[in-house]
Each structure stands twice: as structure tokens, then as C-alpha cells.
Design brief:
Number of strands: 8
Structural class: alpha/beta
Radius of gyration: 17 Å
Oligomer: single chain
Strand order of the largest sheet: 1-2-4-3-5-6-7-8
Distance between the termini: 6 Å
Amino acid sequence: MNAACSAALPPIIPTDYKLQGKYEDIAGLKTYITGSDPTIDITGALPPCRGLIFAYDVFGLLAPTLQGADRLAQALNAVVLVPDFFEGAPIPLNILPADTDEKKALRQAFMEGKAGVVENGERLSRVRAEAGRRFEGVQGWGVFGLCWGGKLAALASGEGTAFKASGTAHPGRLALSDATQMTIPHICLFAPEDGTPGFRKEYGAALRQRNPQSEVEEYADMFHGWMGGRARLDEEVGAREFARG
């Protein structure tokens, strides 16, 4: 979100964050919903006319990710949905660094099983379809993802997409072919470790060639995961860049 938006938002809460939304079932998935109901008083404005599906990283429904969802709802005056694709069983934070054979095997099994992008892409489509029916006042939907969730967002941005725009922060499993097939504006927030400088430049050029409204930005002081479950909100730089993102 830009500086004008973030300046109007409350400060980052590093610990004991109080969620502003609620949980409901959408398309068979427990889903965190924020900004969607006038009884959830986080905007003080009219009911939202924009919607965003927020696909988390592999660490699931953690407080930093949900705080980010609340902030997006406030900044955009939008309904934001965070589906629990992993159904309460994400990968644990202590799997990283994957510095043992056991950790590597657990991560690989998770990525090939519960985190499969084809099945979860279908789930994302079902969430989008039900959200459209439930929130009839929403005039357009976007999709945004963190790392793994960013891959879902990228794959959902091609021909025939049901979304108006998409984006990702610290993207995972980057592929140039994703960028070249997108048909909607896409924003990509990189950390320095998200691919080589040359690849990031090539990826950004491909995005802009497909759609001049697409944007790419590098957060030079950040690490992969700064906007999600691994966010370091108790550190000044980490909190500042989380807010800027």
C-alpha cells in the first residue's frame, strides 16, 4: 500500500494482536473475513465495493498475516478473505531453515501434497465463485498472495480469469511463463533473495510488457517472508517495511 494509505492506518502491533475480522465457511474452507460487514467497525466508511482474496504463505493463519489482511481491508475499503487452504495444518515455522534431511523431507512432502498448486488453484476458484454470490455489492475482485500463495495468484491471472488484478509479496516458485501469460495488472514485491537480479529484472519486464499497469518493487532491506508468518514486527525495520508493503 502506498504512503498515503499507510499513514492513515494504525501502528503495527508486534505481539498480542487483536483480530478485527471473523471466521466463516466459504466454499468448504474456514475463511478469515475482514472489512466485509458494517458490524466489523474497521473502516468507518460505507460497505466495501471491492474484494480481495488473500492467499497466505505455507505457515497458514498466523497473526502477522491476518494483521496484514486487516490493514489491506482498511487501506482499500475492501472485503478481504483469507481461506485456510491447509485446513489447520500448515507447515510449522521451525521447519526453516531446512537444514536437516528430516526437515527437507517434511517440506517436500508438504509441498507435493497439501500445498499442491493445482488442487488449491481449484479451491481458490471455488472461493472466488462463492464470494461473488455472497458479497453481491463487490464490483471487482483481486487476488494477492504471499510466497506460496503468490504462485496461486499468478496462476489465477491468465486468460479467462475471474479477477481484475493480482499481486504477490516475496513470491515463491517464480516462473517467467507465469508473467508472460497474465492478462490483468499484477504487482510483485521482491526481497533480494527472490531469484537473481537478472531474473527479477526479466520477470518485471515481462509483466510490464503484458500490462503496463503492472508494478514491480524491490525491498532491499528485507528477507523472503517479511510480509507473512515470518514477519519481524518487533524490529523497527521489519515493522516499517511490513507497513509499507
